[in-house]
Structure formats: structure tokens, C-alpha cells
Amino acid sequence: MLTKAFLFDLDGVIVDTAIYHYQAWKRLANELGFDISEEFNERLKGVSRTESLDLILEHGGLSLPDEKKTELATQKNEWYLELVSRMTSDDILPGVATFFAQVRKAGLRTALGSVSKNAPLILERVGMTDAFDAIIDGTKISKGKPDPEVFTKGAAELGVSPSECVVFEDAVAGVEAGKRGGMFVVGIGSPDVLTQADLVAPSLEALTVEEVLAKSNA
């Protein structure tokens, strides 16, 4: 089938909010009396807020009741949102604007497929809300990646079949989600890490829409 739609993950593909997550988690750890390194933070990428908190508490040797953990997760999110609310179009990753101009010219449909509940806020801050025909975020799904729900819902909202979609993902779990959904997957990052992807590039800047279509329609 010919490709009709491109589905994009947000973080690591369109923008990079990893630094803000790290700053908020680091602040939380510091308030609890220990620290987390950038190296440790790599383990939290693509992991839910609850699981991230569990990993951090384990790292600090702390065991807390669920009520307290809920409170801490909420606090971290508030700090993160403070940082994210200062984002501007300058935070869009290199090559994204050019790539999206090519996408529109090619007449392709677009959807965002992000497990983040903060995705609409981030898109608004960087001025990219109108770049998407459909936005699937954490409020619209019940299962996180590697479950394909976020992408299959995106395809459904666009009125296309999964086999007519190309997914752009920077995380292993996201690549797996796209593949499980029956889609062609472009990995953004390292080919050594994103081994399941059909095509891998370091960024959207390194790709053209023509190149992606040539591979996905082959």
C-alpha cells in the first residue's frame, strides 16, 4: 500500500524535553537527600512517570508509601511544566520545519503519537499545534508504548490503515510499538540501538520526505 500518513513521536523527534525532565527529577532527588547523574537519567527515557519515580527511589535507597509517591510525582510534574512553559519555537529540533514543509507539499496526513499528557502544551509553546491533523497524547490512551495503541489510534483518527503509515520514533519502545502496529518505522537516533527500525537517521534534518517514501513504498 502507498504511504498516506506520517505519525511522529514528540520528544526526541520534534523537540527535546529530556533536559527538563532531568532537571525536575534531579531537584526532587536533591530534596530527598541524594543526587542523580545524567547517566542515570538515560534509564528514565521513554519510561512512565510512576516507573521513573520507583527507579529514582530505589537508586536513593528509599521506600515510600503510595500516597507519598503520588505527591512526589505530582510535584515533579509541576516543576517540569514550569520549565516547559518557557519553551519557544527555538526549542524545535534542527530540520523539523523543513521536513514538515516537505510533508505538506507531498500531501501527506500527520498525527502526533505521544504518551505524554503534556504534549498539547508543548506543541502550543513551540507553535506546532497546526502542523498535525490529529493529536494522540497520554489522555487518549490506556496503554503506553511498546503497546501500539497510540499509533493505531492516530491512524484511525486520520482515516488511514496502519500499513499506510510511517512512524518516526527515537525510543526502542516506540519503534516496537510502531512495528507491532503494522507500520513502517523510521528510527531517529543510532542504528545500534534502534535495531528494529526499517530505516534509521540521526535526525529529521538528515532525511527528506522523498527518501522516506521511496523506502516505505518499496
Automatic annotation (TrEMBL):
<feature type="binding site">
    <location>
        <begin position="44"/>
        <end position="49"/>
    </location>
    <ligand>
        <name>substrate</name>
    </ligand>
</feature>
<feature type="binding site">
    <location>
        <position position="76"/>
    </location>
    <ligand>
        <name>substrate</name>
    </ligand>
</feature>
<keyword id="KW-0119">Carbohydrate metabolism</keyword>
<keyword id="KW-0413">Isomerase</keyword>
<feature type="binding site">
    <location>
        <begin position="114"/>
        <end position="118"/>
    </location>
    <ligand>
        <name>substrate</name>
    </ligand>
</feature>
<keyword id="KW-0460">Magnesium</keyword>
<feature type="binding site">
    <location>
        <position position="169"/>
    </location>
    <ligand>
        <name>Mg(2+)</name>
    </ligand>
</feature>
<feature type="site" description="Important for catalytic activity and assists the phosphoryl transfer reaction to Asp8 by balancing charge and orienting the reacting groups">
    <location>
        <position position="114"/>
    </location>
</feature>
<dbReference type="InterPro" id="IPR051600">
    <property type="entry name" value="Beta-PGM-like"/>
</dbReference>
<dbReference type="Pfam" id="PF00702">
    <property type="entry name" value="Hydrolase"/>
</dbReference>
<dbReference type="InterPro" id="IPR006439">
    <property type="entry name" value="HAD-SF_hydro_IA"/>
</dbReference>
<feature type="binding site">
    <location>
        <position position="9"/>
    </location>
    <ligand>
        <name>Mg(2+)</name>
    </ligand>
</feature>
<protein>
    <recommendedName>
        <fullName>Beta-phosphoglucomutase</fullName>
        <ecNumber>5.4.2.6</ecNumber>
    </recommendedName>
</protein>
<feature type="site" description="Important for catalytic activity and assists the phosphoryl transfer reaction to Asp8 by balancing charge and orienting the reacting groups">
    <location>
        <position position="145"/>
    </location>
</feature>
<feature type="binding site">
    <location>
        <position position="25"/>
    </location>
    <ligand>
        <name>substrate</name>
    </ligand>
</feature>
<dbReference type="InterPro" id="IPR023214">
    <property type="entry name" value="HAD_sf"/>
</dbReference>
<comment type="similarity">
    <text>Belongs to the HAD-like hydrolase superfamily. CbbY/CbbZ/Gph/YieH family.</text>
</comment>
<feature type="binding site">
    <location>
        <position position="11"/>
    </location>
    <ligand>
        <name>Mg(2+)</name>
    </ligand>
</feature>
<keyword id="KW-0479">Metal-binding</keyword>
<dbReference type="GO" id="GO:0008801">
    <property type="term" value="F:beta-phosphoglucomutase activity"/>
</dbReference>
<dbReference type="InterPro" id="IPR023198">
    <property type="entry name" value="PGP-like_dom2"/>
</dbReference>
<feature type="active site" description="Proton donor/acceptor">
    <location>
        <position position="11"/>
    </location>
</feature>
<feature type="active site" description="Nucleophile">
    <location>
        <position position="9"/>
    </location>
</feature>
<feature type="binding site">
    <location>
        <position position="52"/>
    </location>
    <ligand>
        <name>substrate</name>
    </ligand>
</feature>
<dbReference type="GO" id="GO:0005975">
    <property type="term" value="P:carbohydrate metabolic process"/>
</dbReference>
<dbReference type="InterPro" id="IPR010976">
    <property type="entry name" value="B-phosphoglucomutase_hydrolase"/>
</dbReference>
<keyword id="KW-0597">Phosphoprotein</keyword>
<dbReference type="InterPro" id="IPR010972">
    <property type="entry name" value="Beta-PGM"/>
</dbReference>
<feature type="binding site">
    <location>
        <begin position="9"/>
        <end position="11"/>
    </location>
    <ligand>
        <name>substrate</name>
    </ligand>
</feature>
<dbReference type="GO" id="GO:0000287">
    <property type="term" value="F:magnesium ion binding"/>
</dbReference>
<feature type="binding site">
    <location>
        <position position="170"/>
    </location>
    <ligand>
        <name>Mg(2+)</name>
    </ligand>
</feature>
<feature type="binding site">
    <location>
        <position position="145"/>
    </location>
    <ligand>
        <name>substrate</name>
    </ligand>
</feature>
<dbReference type="InterPro" id="IPR036412">
    <property type="entry name" value="HAD-like_sf"/>
</dbReference>
